[in-house]
Specification:
CATH class of the largest domain: Mainly Beta
CATH topology of the largest domain: Jelly Rolls
Order of helices and strands: EEEEEEEEHEEHHEHHHHHHH
CATH architecture of the largest domain: Sandwich
Largest sheet: 6 strands, antiparallel
Radius of gyration: 18 Å
Oligomer: single chain
CATH superfamily of the largest domain: Regulatory protein AraC
């Protein structure tokens, strides 16, 4: 049985954080987004970071910073291995900790040695309460240096799309049609899809799939069975969830659920 190059770490002392540690591999990712703040560092190789500000090459030591809902994909040259670590931080916890409604990173890709050292220290497994406190303080330092408070979360300023976004976030498991979302926003389906993609970087269908996958990941991390997670998030069946999960996360939901935490 092939060992996955990807490892996820969680600890009860820091339930608001999850670390992904990916050893060298040529895995590529589809365009996706996370519900959490994502703080990453490339450990080896080189990748191309695709995001709203354009494609950027990131070499070893480079840092990636993403707000919840920021679409992106990091992919190496075909067949070229790369390694990275990514820390996912619960948005509600971080906002409460900092006393803000939302945060925006000034830059999403950095090649700064001082920031890289800080991110390297954050992207390490938590092994107890002391490490959790150290991580929380380190996150405060990072956000103070690299981000500013924002009036609203990403995409919340897209007033004409708010009805659709609220419904998608409230019911990611529902079989909502593009036509019904467009009608709620007072647009034709064609115009709605165009405006939605311009605002979020994704089509409504891709956006909903990402919401479902993020929800499935949370359920699996909490110990929910694969079949139950698939049903709860509106997938046709477990196989449907598995295909989508692997395409977006480069490992199967079973691999993810079975990792020690």
């Amino acid at each position: 049985m092939t060992t996955s190059p990807h490892r996820f770490h969680r600890h009860p002392a820091a339930p608001w954080a999850e670390l992904r540690d990916s050893a060298p591999s040529p895995h590529c990712f589809r365009l996706h987004m996370h519900a959490e703040y994502s703080i990453g560092i490339v450990d080896a190789g080189c990748t191309v970071f695709h995001h709203a500000h354009g494609p950027q090459p990131i070499e070893a030591g480079g840092v990636v910073l993403l707000e919840p809902g920021a679409w992106h994909a990091c992919n190496p040259e075909p067949g070229a291995p790369w390694a990275y670590r990514m820390l996912f931080v619960d948005a509600d916890w971080l906002h409460a900790r900092l006393g803000v409604t939302a945060m925006r990173f000034a830059q999403r890709a950095l090649a700064d040695a001082n920031i890289a050292r800080l991110v390297d220290s954050l992207c390490r497994p938590v092994n107890g309460p002391t490490a959790a406190r150290r991580l929380a303080l380190g996150l405060e330092r990072l956000m103070a240096r690299c981000a500013e408070p924002a009036a609203a979360p990403l995409h919340a300023n897209s007033a004409e799309l708010q009805a659709a976004l609220r419904r998608l976030h409230a019911e990611p498991d529902a079989g909502i049609t593009v036509q019904s979302l467009a009608q709620e926003c007072g647009m034709s389906a064609t115009r709605f899809i165009r405006r939605f993609k311009a605002a979020t970087g994704m089509t409504p269908g891709s956006y909903r799939l990402n919401l479902r996958l993020n929800g499935a990941r949370r359920l699996l991390a909490s110990g929910t069975a694969l079949s139950e997670a698939a049903h709860a998030m509106g997938f046709a069946d477990q196989a449907h969830m598995q295909r989508a999960f692997k395409a977006h996360h480069a490992l199967t939901p079973g691999n993810y659920a079975g990792m020690p935490r």
